[in-house]
Amino acid sequence: MKKLKNIYFDYQATTPVDPRVLKKMMPYFGEIYGNPHSRNHSFGWEAEEGVEVAREHVAKIINANPKEIIFTSGATESNNLALKGVSEFYGDKKNHIITCVTEHKCVLESCRHLAGKGFEVTYLPVRSDGLINLDELKKSITDKTLIVSIMGVHNEIGVIQPLEEIGKICRSKDIFFHTDCAQAIGKIPLDVDKMNIDLMSISGHKIYAPKGVGALYIRRKPRVRISSMISGGGQERGMRSGTLSPALCVGLGEACNIYSNEMEKENKTLTKYKDMMLEGIRKSCPDVYLNGSELMRVPGNLNLSFAYVEGESLMMGIKDLAVSSGSACTSASLEPSYVLKALGVEEELAHTSLRIGFGRFTTENEVKYATDVIVKEVKRLRELSPLWEMAQEGVDISKIKWAHH
Amino acid sequence: MAYSKELLDHYENPKNVGSMDKESEQVGTGLVGAPACGDVMKLQIKVNNKGVIEDAKFKTFGCGSAIASSSLITEWVKGKNLDEAHSIKNTEIANHLALPPVKIHCSILAEDAIKAAIDDYKKKNRKNR
Fold it and tell me: Sorting pLDDT into bands at 50, 70 and 90, what band is A328?
């Protein structure tokens, strides 16, 4: 097979901007330069119109009202604003937050910040398939519980949490339900009413819009109130001051618009690619494990453990494929992923994990090529691996007394 | 992270990959590291009756730097006597491969591995005397 150079398989880290999105944005970098908050001349009106059309597109993909959408700089800001904003506003009445151990760092860190301000935080564990246990959620609720924050689709392992069931539980107890849907928009159908979602974080650069833009959905009926984090001119209904970037907002809007029409088709293609690669690898390599639920997952994410082959060395061997390592050994910490740990993946297996992400611009040829390259390299590195050798000889590696260093 | 040419070469074309009969009296085996830490090195030496290492083999589970460090040390110990091999310092490996600071532990592991293999050989042969 012809050697391909630098193929992108890291769509969960970020996505390229769709050329259709960029095209819609361009005029807002040029002739339409007005301040969208200028109310008294046509320059402002024109920019504002772009922003408002974008807001409608964002609202539509989650079945919300455009008035319930505010633009932010990205999902990190949205998650911060949702958690801290609600907690600050209602904190004197209720002070308990429920989230989950595998949430994104920006949710966990926001909770940690709030814990420092006197809030109680419950971190739900996950089952080995990466999903939360709904009974545990119910049991964790107290009359002080203010908000539950559980992400829609996981960035690292791609699993889909049961949003509708979580929403039902929250609504029945009068608790706010926030969900980080940075990786869920365009991947699974979302309906804030059907799922009883009160706040939802959205990111631009995970859905083929640029980096630097996101949104927060905030329910109006029944009304959810938040304290703003940024003081200023009171833009975005007073919840997020600062002049909007019409170009970025238009980009996010168009990205949502495209997904409103193409999600189903895209998911079909990605499912085909995922099956192709998974079957191709499993056919040639034993002892490869999929991390996270096999059924409740988005097709664009394959998080695999290649037993007996250390993840970083595998990445080095497949250097023309841009994938992400499940172990954080490239950073100074040497600690494997906290997410895989939470699933109960043993540390030695966590060290062998890679996240392979497919997306809109992945081609069948690339998937075939990558499958071949990965299989070839796993086989080569296993020939180098003393653990593989022991496993073939029937030695139980877990029974050996290793000198931890 | 940019790796040196030497490191990449040892990673892509590792020298002396393989295993020797660990029951043989001529062979010393060192197994160091732990799977849970992300690296395990198995290093074996074959010593002739003059006390010279005439062959060395390795297998390594670990990052590219760990593989390269073990490949390099097997090259270095061949033809050395046990004392010379025992005195190889991890810093020499780290310098030769230009290991980045976070990867220094790979060279330490290689040094530990050769020392463990020598110890194993000596233990075996003391018993038999």
Answer: very low
A164's enclosing H/E stretch is: helix A163-172
pTM higher than the cut 0.90: yes
Question: Which of B61, B69, B74 is most worth mutating to test chain A (most A CB atoms within 10 A of its CB)?
Answer: B61
pLDDT tens digit sequence for B40-61: 999 999 999 999 999 999 999 9
**Residue A378 has which token pair?**
């796993």
Q: Which residues of A touch B64 (CB under 8 A)?
A: 312-313, 316
Of all residues in chain B, the one with the smallest CA distance to A384 is: B59
- Provide the CATH number for the domain around residue B54: 3.90.1010.10
pLDDT tens digits, residue range B19-40? Answer: 999 999 999 999 999 998 889 9
Min Cα–Cα distance to chain B from A310, Å: 5
Q: How many domains does chain B have?
A: 1
**Termini Cα distance of chain A:** 42
Q: Supply the range of the domain harboring residue B46.
A: 5-128
CA gap B52, B70 in Å, rounded:
19
